[in-house]
Write a structure and sequence with these properties.
This protein is mainly α. The chain has 10 helices and no strands. Keywords: DNA-binding, Transcription, Transcription regulation.
């Protein structure tokens, strides 16, 4: 019997299947991927470097949605804000991947290159070297927390008796729709204000 024209298994199919599993259940296993693709588990290992290798393929796939060109904008704070919004949107599309990706080291070369560009942006803007990674990690905390918030129900507070919590009821009514977006923009602006002050303090020393 001749070989099929289209391979039954490749890294793209493995990544797509793993992401489908993560989106559905928050995790994956190599045997689950093999069953979905109709192959033996050992066949999957011929294409990837074990489970960790699949996690890095997932990281690359999810981060493909980030607009890296935003890091070329100037001034630096506009670049960082645009990158953060794009970063948030990419991970909000796959919120169940966040715990999986955030609990394993970043190894994917294309993702590391994105961090290299972000570090270069901050250094060129005048941030001291010791502040660069804290600034980026703090920004990620804002971004990923908000990406998870986007996956939450719009109505996170269910009030059965408005007379018991009248001020909370008023506050919820006042915010209207897009609660998560409003909270993200508030947190992002607060983060950027603090980052600007740190940079200016360093510049005056």
């Amino acid at each position: 019997m001749g070989r099929p024209r289209t391979p039954l298994l490749d890294r793209e199919r493995i990544t797509t299947t793993a992401l489908e599993l993560v989106d559905a259940q928050g995790d994956f296993s190599v045997p689950q991927i093999a069953r979905r693709l109709g192959v033996q588990t050992g066949s999957v290992y011929h294409h990837v470097d074990g489970r960790d290798g699949i996690v890095e393929l997932l990281r690359e796939r999810v981060t493909e949605g980030i607009d890296v060109s935003a890091l070329e904008l100037r001034p630096w704070d506009e670049a960082l804000a645009a990158w953060a919004r794009s970063y948030r949107a990419a991970f909000a599309a796959h919120p169940r991947a966040i715990p999986l990706l955030m609990t394993s080291p970043v190894r994917a070369p294309r993702v590391l290159e994105q961090y290299e560009r972000a570090v270069t942006l901050l250094l060129d803007a005048g941030f001291p070297l010791a502040d660069v990674m804290p600034v980026l990690v703090a920004l990620e905390n804002v971004v990923l927390g908000s990406a998870l918030d986007l996956a939450a129900p719009e109505a996170m507070w269910e009030i059965a008796d408005e007379t018991a919590t009248p001020r909370l009821t008023e506050a919820l009514d006042a915010i209207g729709d897009h609660r998560a977006d409003a909270a993200f923009e508030l947190a992002l602006e607060g983060f950027l204000d603090h980052a600007r002050r740190r940079r200016e303090t360093h510049a005056t020393l």
